[in-house]
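Trying the structure run again after the queue cleared.
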Amino acid sequence: MNAKRKIPLIVALLPLLLLIGVVFLVVKWIFSGKKNTETIPETTPASAETESRRKEAETTVFRPIPPEISGKTAAVPVTSAPRAVTPPPAVEINSPAPVPATVATPKTVTQAPPPPIKRKFVTWEDMATVFHHGARALTRTAAVTALKGRGFGKSAAYDALSEDGRFAAWLQFAPDGIITWAG
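Done. Tokens:
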């Protein structure tokens, strides 16, 4: 290409940017020249005549309050003659018959023994005892029940009987699910 024919991008866009700027300023000037002509109507005090008409209209719409009912006084209106207040008839109260006092006998409370404390760690001796030192073969469920009977929790029992657990070297797992002790 010819170097004379290359026009830098900024030079090509300069007239377009100037035109957009001028249009923006003209539009802004047109709309900013208009002042806010909206006015808020001011309230003028009403004359005494219109105020009295308003009050008359309100009293015809609403129920008038009788003069004997006053909102400020809490006194009971006095009637022509005060009534005599008669006391209620006297009621004779008899004291109840004496009741013999009951003697509280001490109760012997038998407490149930506390639940066995769950042991946390299964030992090699516990596993050997459950499997009778290799003389007994159990399913996983039966072995867990036997360990729970010795005071271990279900999770600890299943962890001890897992194929990759602490005692995996001494346990033999048959394909039919029978576990034997080889310790």
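The longest strand covers residues 178-181. Worth checking whether this holds up in the mutant runs.
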